TrEMBL record:
Name the UniProt record assigns to this protein: Probable phosphoketolase
The species this protein was found in: Streptomyces griseoaurantiacus
Family annotation (Gene3D superfamilies): 3.40.50.920, 3.40.50.970
Assigned EC number: 4.1.2.-
UniProtKB keywords: Lyase, Thiamine pyrophosphate
Residue stretches making up the Xylulose 5-phosphate/Fructose 6-phosphate phosphoketolase C-terminal domain: 591-793
Short name of one Pfam family: XFP_N
Xylulose 5-phosphate/Fructose 6-phosphate phosphoketolase N-terminal domain sequence ranges: 13-374
UniProt xrefs under SUPFAM superfamilies: Thiamin diphosphate-binding fold (THDP-binding)
Organism classification: Bacteria, Bacillati, Actinomycetota, Actinomycetes, Kitasatosporales
């Protein structure tokens, strides 16, 4: 085991080493301040005037000096040890720091050749920051070396572990701000070290940066006594190393010692597991860095303390253009870094500033790990025919769709066993979601204690389960962004927990599509199952189909939502999603026995179209337009629609019924609103422009209205879906309570087809009576009516 001491021995830095580290740090600080404030006079070759300062001051200074310190010292150890390294900048609002370091090392200019490493380029670097037509104030997709959007806090550590998975030679340093450390997602992600395989995975080095304050308040961890903080971090499974101080020289020496001690311990732990066969879960080192917020900035402004307080969080001097004293302080602050020592007359960094910077792809801004699409390999997917279920005629057999998919995923796991670039993640639900076939190819990652009763735990497993949707999401995002593939399986109702996280990822994808230097990454794929219509046993708390509403609010170019109605269409959709790039794909599919409607070839064609008329299910004869369209999206709505069509065929044989099944819900949008949308001509050809459309939809009905509101036939569209009515009940009672059942759909047809209300009054009454009979039956017998439970398609 590593030693328990928390004060690392000092590293023997020469005075030359110390001067080089300090020069690089000062240069990065100068560039960070310049980005926040300046739009001209970047080298202060003349006295600072108001017109040199931006009219709107935006950005975050407070965290930047600490980030610059970490970056400087990572440079040293990467160079000296020839490390393959990546850094996740949790305080992502410290964008000025990360951009500054990228410019210093040259990776920024290589990415953006117009931002040269000279005075003109520095001026451009400064002006573009938080400026119209420029770059965001956060670490963003535009930032070389980044895989982490800093706009929302909480996900840095899970991203770091996701990046380290299956990257055995990679060091992932993760800077965690003390504000971020207060979030629920970050708190849960500390447990990721129980899933990190020291043999096949890389290492994560957390750096908890305690500068004491958030925007306006102190931070919890910064106010804990050091002993209590150590107990917390040791409880999480880490050995903390402390670096504390305000004197730059002392902090540089302490930080160098902490970095070297941590990396020596990581090397020893990996060697023990990889060469000596050690199986005990490692206690990984981490660094606790305490420096003042806004370190080296103004100590006091307008008579109020700033450095070391919450006032340093964003822009310490806010009235520089209008207040001469603020302007004087800004110039004094900038000159305190002695820029004439850091940059030559042309504005290029002097050699001593770059003495600690690594070369080529070892630079943090140039690592291909942060541009994962460059490393992405095609996923070896099996032929779908190998796993397709035979369908001689529609509705003659039943299968559990996700169980069928599980067999395909087992093949994917087996095919990637050597290359290790596919992971399945989910919150404790792999077997519950019928995907347990994957365990034949890979068990569940687990480094903690095991007991004889445990099943399928594997120190080297690639199935990831933790009862934290946030952590699952973060792992998978980090994995995908560094060039691998994966799938997130989740109960439909609880995927909402990651609403905000997927929002950030979609924004990332949308931005990267406009950056030609960012190579496309594998899509983020969700399989949502245990869905609303078959959560009759768990009850109301488990019934929520609204994630797709959230997704379809996002950038149309980056999001896709699919409702495969049976096992073969699920295989086809999953194959498409796993092959795709730069999307968020949401697949909603059931795990309960479901009728098989389409052969594999029919499923391929149907999924390629996104929707289609099922001629075999309707009663059109081809000589006239349909009297009514029965549309459906989702497995249970499809079954209820076909049951309604069967009732109509028997009760109203002269009625021309068209059945339309929708797999790709975005097909309902106009073509100009979504790449998968339909033209009005196509839409009217399928749904008609003047006939009643009764649409049985898996989720909240108003989504369909929102997607189709501009269509000519919208006034004739009537949607049935989930209406927030549920409890612990029978499967069919769920659809009855929400008016999605077959009897209600038949009644809707009678109510909306002109002339049927009178002519089919007896049929409507029969349907109403069936609903009442159902109500009484389930309360007496506890199960659904035999005519429902034993229903089969006889078309």
């Amino acid at each position: 085991m590593p030693p328990d001491d928390t004060t690392p021995p000092p590293t023997a830095l020469t005075e030359e080493d110390l001067a080089a580290l300090d020069a690089h740090w000062r240069a990065a600080n100068y560039l960070a301040v310049g980005q926040i404030y300046l739009m001209a006079n970047p080298l202060l070759t003349e006295p600072l005037r108001p017109e040199h300062v931006k009219p709107r001051l935006l950005g975050h200074w407070g965290t930047s000096p600490g980030l610059n310190l970490v970056h400087t010292h990572l440079n040293r150890v990467i160079r000296d040890r020839d490390l393959d390294a990546l850094c996740i900048w949790g305080p992502g609002h410290g964008g000025p720091a990360v951009v500054a370091n990228s410019w210093l090392e040259g990776s920024y200019t290589e990415t953006y050749p117009d931002v040269t490493r000279d005075a003109a380029g520095m001026a451009r670097l400064f002006k573009q920051f938080s400026f119209p037509g420029g770059i965001p104030s956060h670490v963003a997709p535009e930032t070389p070396g980044s895989i982490h959007e800093g706009g929302e806090l909480g996900y840095a550590l899970s991203h770091a572990y996701g990046a380290a998975l299956d990257n055995p030679g990679l060091l992932v340093t993760c800077v965690i701000g003390d504000g971020e450390a207060e979030t629920g997602p970050l708190a849960a992600s500390w447990h990721s070290n129980k899933f990190l395989d020291p043999v096949h995975d890389g290492a994560v080095l957390p750096v908890l940066h305690l500068n004491g304050y958030k925007i306006a308040n102190p931070t919890v961890l910064a106010r804990l006594p050091e002993e209590e903080l150590d107990e917390l971090l040791r409880g999480y499974g880490h050995d903390p190393l402390h670096v504390t101080g305000e004197d730059p020289a002392a902090v540089h020496r302490a930080m160098a010692g902490a970095m070297d001690t941590a990396l020596d311990r990581i090397t020893a732990l990996q060697r023990a597991a990889r060469e000596d066969g050690a199986t005990e879960r490692p206690r990984w080192p981490m660094i606790v860095l305490r420096t003042p917020k806004g370190w080296t900035g103004p100590a006091e402004v307008d008579g109020l303390p700033v450095e070391g307080t919450w006032r340093a969080h964003q822009v310490p001097l806010a009235a520089v253009r209008d207040n001469p004293e603020h302007l004087r302080q800004l110039e004094s602050w900038l000159r305190s870094y002695r820029p004439e020592e850091l940059f030559d007359a042309q504005g290029a960094p002097r050699p001593e500033v770059l003495a600690c910077v690594p070369e080529g792809e070892r630079r943090l801004g140039a690592t291909p790990r942060a541009n994962g699409g460059l490393l992405l390999r095609t996923l070896p997917l099996p032929p779908l025919e190998k796993h397709a279920v035979p369908v001689d005629k529609p509705g003659a057999t039943l299968h559990e769709p996700t169980r069928v998919l599980g067999d395909l995923l087992e093949d994917v796991m087996a095919a990637t066993a050597e290359r290790r670039d596919f992971r399945l993640v989910g919150p404790d639900e792999t077997a519950s979601n019928r995907l347990q076939a994957v365990y034949e190819a890979s068990g569940k990652a687990w480094q903690a204690e095991t007991r004889p009763v445990d099943e399928n735990l594997d120190r080297h497993g690639r199935v990831m389960e933790i009862l934290s949707e946030h952590t699952c999401q973060g792992w998978l995002e980090g994995y995908l962004l560094t060039g691998r593939h994966g799938l997130f399986s989740c109960y439909e109702a609880f995927v909402h927990i990651v609403d905000s996280m997927v929002n950030q990822h979609v924004k990332w994808l949308r931005t990267t599509r406009r950056l030609d230097w960012r190579a496309p990454i594998a899509s983020l794929n969700y399989l949502l199952t245990s869905h609303v219509w078959r959560q009759d046993h768990n009850g109301f708390s488990h019934q929520d189909p609204g994630f797709v509403d959230h997704i379809l609010n996002k950038s149309p170019e980056a999001v896709r939502v699919y409702f495969p109605p049976d096992a073969n269409t699920l295989l086809s959709v999953a194959d498409h999603a796993l092959r795709s790039r730069n999307y968020v794909n949401v697949i909603v599919a059931g795990k309960q026995p479901c009728f098989d409607w389409l052969s594999m070839e029919e499923a391929r064609v149907h999924c390629a179209r996104g929707l289609g008329v099922w001629d075999w299910a309707g009663t059109e004869d081809g000589t006239r337009e349909p009297d009514v369209v029965l549309a459906c999206a989702g497995d249970v709505p499809t079954q209820e629609t076909l049951a309604a069509a069967q009732l109509l065929r028997g009760r109203l044989p002269d009625l021309a019924v068209r059945v339309v099944n929708v797999v790709d819900i975005a097909r309902l949008l106009p073509a100009e609103e979504h790449p998968h949308g339909m033209s009005d001509f196509e839409y009217d050809g399928v749904f008609t422009s003047d006939k009643p459309v009764i649409f049985a939809y898996h989720g909240y009905p108003w989504l369909i209205h929102r997607l189709a509101y501009r269509r000519d036939g919208h006034e004739h569209l009537h949607v049935r879906g989930y209406k927030e009515r549920g409890t612990t009940t029978t499967p069919f009672d769920m659809v009855v309570q929400n008016d999605l059942d077959r009897y209600r759909l038949v009644m809707d047809v009678i109510d909306r087809v002109p002339g049927l209300a009178v002519r089919a009054a007896a049929v409507r009454q029969e349907m109403q009576d069936a609903r009442l009979r159902h109500h009484e039956w389930i309360r007496e017998h506890g199960v659904d009516l035999p005519e429902v439970a034993d229903w089969t398609w006889d078309g």
